[in-house]
Write a structure and sequence with these properties.
The structure is a single chain. This protein is an alpha+beta fold. It has 17 helices and 23 strands. 32% of the residues lie in helices and 21% in strands. It binds flavin-adenine dinucleotide. Flavin-adenine dinucleotide (FAD) binds next to helix 2, strand 20 and helix 17.
Length: 566
Amino acid sequence: MEVTRCDLLIVGTGAGTMTAALRASKAGLKVLMVEKEDMFGGASARSGGGIWIPNSYHAARHGGQDSADKAMTYFRDQTGDRFNEANVRAFIANGPEMLNFIEETSSLRFQVAMGYGDYHCEAPGGETSRVLFPDVWDGAELGKDIERLRPVLRRGRFMGMQVGILEVGLYITAARKPESILYVLKNLIKRTRDQVRAGRTLRLVGGNALVAALAAAAFRNGTELWTSAPARSLIRDGDRVIGAIVDRPQGPVRVEASDGVILATGGFPHDSRRRAASFPARADVAETWSTYPYGNAGDGIRMGEDVGAVFDADMACPVALTPVTRLEAGEGVLETSPIFFFRGAPGVISVTRRGKRFVNEARSYHDWGVGLLAATAGEPEAVAWIICDHRAIRRYGLGIIKPAPFPLRGYIKSGYLKTGATVRELADNAGIDADALERTVTAFNEPARRGEDPAFHRGSTVYEMVNGDPEHRPNPCVGPLDTGPFYAIRVTAGCIGTFAGIKANAHAQVIDAAGQAITGLYVAGNDMASITGGDYIAGGCTLGPAMTFGYIAAGHMISQRPGAAG
Ligand SMILES: Cc1cc2nc3c(=O)[nH]c(=O)nc-3n(C[C@H](O)[C@H](O)[C@H](O)COP(=O)(O)OP(=O)(O)OC[C@H]3O[C@@H](n4cnc5c(N)ncnc54)[C@H](O)[C@@H]3O)c2cc1C
């Protein structure tokens, strides 16, 4: 078998390992990254790119009032019995430094989304200055490697342009606000120029910007990347992990890594066996339930277990949930799209098949999913309908449907969008209990006219407000459904990641059943048991820890090198 030698072998190419690669290669280590698929970047590249880093210097510069103690308080409150003090402390201490390191060693810049609350920002220690997004990044810097970069989801684009989370409001209001249409037109001109120049968009945002910029910097510092090269198993020498067997199109390669191996294959969204074992509530769902690339199939966790790693499924919820809709996108193709926006906008509610609301719709996508699973426990499928009136669908869109002036007809014809002149007719067409839905809408509408939601108190936190319509008064999240016709889309609780994963210590070293570090083996990203204890506690709370523990893992390896400063 062919043999290759490096200092650090990285399995998986998400934002966490790109950060590790950058730090290690910058310090002079010979870094090899291997990626199972023919594109690199994984779910990180298709993500919104929101990064949760408490107590950052960036936030402090914008007047943020955060502190390490305050962040610890939030963690302690949110994770309860699962609070992992050492690892949380390491995350909070290293996150701000990690951001600075990236800005010093790459062309990537971050901006704080000030006012964007933690998902439970009303809880002790909650804050509104911890989420950062990458700035728009010029993909030309990546050169030819851009052809290997995983694209964003189709529904995350508009006319070929990538749309960042902080830009959504501008795109949604483009038909009625001059400043918005100017913004979109400017991007469209740039998009057209890019098409002529490079045959694709080069204006990268969100997760695409994040991964591409980190990759460009890592490659510049000597990191090598093999795509279509899944790692199959780890190699041990005694108790120490010294590399992995990697399958390449031309045959298997024995990769020996003198300093260590980082596992970061993106959790187990598409490992149906592990999902059934650790998350029986959704053991039987179709593979289309997840918004993740199909390569994320639990390989890293399995390889880790083979050498003594411990899979930690003790999570509040082992899987991160989000509402997803499915559309037949052509012969034999089912397209799964997450619904991140406007669930909690005025004139929009979610109900079960029984016609009842089950959650405060303006809370996070994960809270929405947890609410639906509880409301449909014992039923064969966790199905809900997101319902709205005509005014709401034309103003905000619904699911993958864009707002006015884009037509609704095609979606109605395909069956994706159900409609009815009255709430009762809508219920009949969608297969919802009509009496119950009428009662629900009537009960919602009367207080909604005053901006009140006595059942679930929608619009009562800073984070919920962000999910609403800032122009709607008195409550950005609450308004009646009273302008027919009415509409509904069918939604299920899908997967936006996995929380359960391999146990690690505060250096990101994989630990065995006795709590001892397995020498030479590190873990980052969703292969690592989440420090959130299995709750989506803030936007960016998977990428922030992934990048920070990638940074920590590389730093630990560097510190173990002969002659390293103690
Ligand atoms: C639409 C969407 C939006 C999101 N938005 C956000 C957000 O704004 N903020 C946030 O924090 N999180 C967000 N997430 C979640 C976030 O993207 C993931 O939690 C994160 O990317 C996981 O990083 P990772 O490194 O663990 O996995 P990935 O980024 O998926 O990388 C893992 C890589 O490993 C590869 N791999 C798998 N097996 C092998 C093998 N055997 N050998 C080699 N390579 C292998 C995979 O192909 C993949 O490329 C979003 C997710 C989606 C789908």
